[in-house]
Write a structure and sequence with these properties.
This is EF-hand domain-containing protein. By secondary structure, the chain is of the alpha+beta class. Helix content is 53%, strand content 16%. The strands form three sheets. Strands 1-2 form a two-stranded antiparallel sheet.
Length: 215
């Protein structure tokens, strides 16, 4: 998957891990003498599995290599990306959750370009159901196909930390969790199933804005 080694040298200046909508970005810097190549097989796979065009894939690839010359993105670099975008916040906690959805294989600590693009495809170009499923996975920390109050609180607190927002008043994460469960936990079992999550986000714009901002 992803990139393969090559002796061909690529040069591209002022590229970052970014797309035209600036979803990601680190400090611009020159990237010279990169000896990693985007294979035709990877391009073909991504054209089949994502909604990106070949031009977009290649553009993302250059940006990816600008910050990950090895062709692999680890969690530390992933945190750097978010910390750069949100300099006044604390990125690590939220990045732990997002990176987990990007890399569900707990045996590996880094993701290649192909997996990265498949994940980005969901958040940028996915259908409503795909985006809601991605959001549900982020909240379902232990992977048991349901969200507990503790799991939701964990993610919401991390999100507020990332944004540098106060956790008092209307932003109090515990109060937000209690209100959300009161509205969408239809069987009152103190867990949110995937069905409840989907229907709740679709029916309530305020809940959707909190739980699934990429919707």
């Amino acid at each position: 998957m992803g990139c393969t080694g090559s002796t061909e040298k690529k040069k591209r200046k002022n590229t970052t891990l970014t797309s035209s909508d600036d979803s990601f970005g680190l400090h611009n810097r020159d990237v010279d003498e990169i000896k990693v190549e985007l294979s035709d097989a990877t391009i073909s796979t991504l054209l089949d599995e994502t909604k990106f065009t070949q031009e977009e894939i290649i553009d993302w690839w250059h940006g990816f290599l600008a910050d990950c010359p090895s062709g692999l993105l680890d969690k530390d670099k992933f945190i750097d990306v978010y910390q750069y975008k949100y300099p006044s916040g604390k990125a690590k906690g939220f990045c732990d959750h997002v990176f987990r959805t990007f890399n569900p294989d707990k045996r590996t600590r880094a993701i290649d370009f192909e997996r990265f693009m498949c994940a980005i495809n969901v958040t940028l170009k996915g259908t409503s159901d795909e985006k809601l499923n991605w959001a549900f996975t982020m909240y379902d920390i232990n992977g048991d196909q349901r969200i507990s109050k503790k799991e939701m609180l964990n993610v919401l607190e991390a999100m507020l930390d990332l944004l540098g927002k106060d956790k008092k008043g209307p932003n109090n994460p515990q109060k937000q969790v209690d209100r959300i469960f009161l509205r969408i936990d239809s069987n009152h079992d103190n867990y949110i199933s995937k069905e409840e999550f989907f229907s709740g986000c679709r029916a309530d714009e305020n809940i959707r804005a909190i739980l699934a901002p990429y919707y």
